[in-house]
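Recall the central idea of this unit: under ordinary conditions, the amino acid sequence of a chain determines the structure it adopts. In this exercise we apply that idea directly, starting from the sequence alone.
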Amino acid sequence: MRKRVVAGNWKMNTNIEEGLLLVKEIDHLVKDLSQETGVIIAPPFTHLATISSLLKSENSRILLAAQNCADHQSGAYTGEVSPNTLAEIGCKYVIIGHSERREYYSETNDLLLRKIELVLKANMSPIYCIGERLEERESNRHFDVVSSQIKEVLYNLSEEELEKVIIAYEPVWAIGTGKTASSDQAEEMHEFIRGIVADKFPSCADNISILYGGSCKPSNAQELFARKNVDGGLIGGASLSAVDFVAIIKSF
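Accordingly, the structure predicted from this sequence is:
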């Protein structure tokens, strides 16, 4: 059975004090909720160690993710953060290939594959982001784009490795724009993604969680999550409000 997951990507928002207050509020609000839905937060790098200690002390159900990692485990790579270090801090997940990393930092599929392999070696799970830009959808290339992002990266993994991966579909044209893919558009793409995975890994496709990541908020989460192939969300702006984030978690 596929795992339902709601992950909050805080991006470059909050200072450490604000982050601690936010996670405490989220933790309080999810304590009595069903354990069937996995709850993940991805604060900035600067917050990870402090928040990890808090989550351990509170015996929280919330799991910690990093927003990115280096494509090397160690060495002379100034400013980078090793996957091994993230695992030592207490991270269980790493977001890989977010559209902002692809666009602003020119991250390629080859680079993202190296990161995923190192994340897996460090006993963490990648949240692998894929999705098309507006011009790619308008030119009817969105399926080709998403297919190549899967085949050039995930097809290089073993079945055992793929079982540890979460996929997040991000229609790039719907991130931070106020636009949202309709539930029909989301379901169509999620079904397509599952089919591409099945072509290479037929025994894994039904079990892999595929999250929707494009301006998901309390007002549309229930409709999106009701679709057969949408297993949760990678939440951006709405994850910075504990009330909104938990309302999305409750949308299943």
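The longest strand covers residues 4-9.
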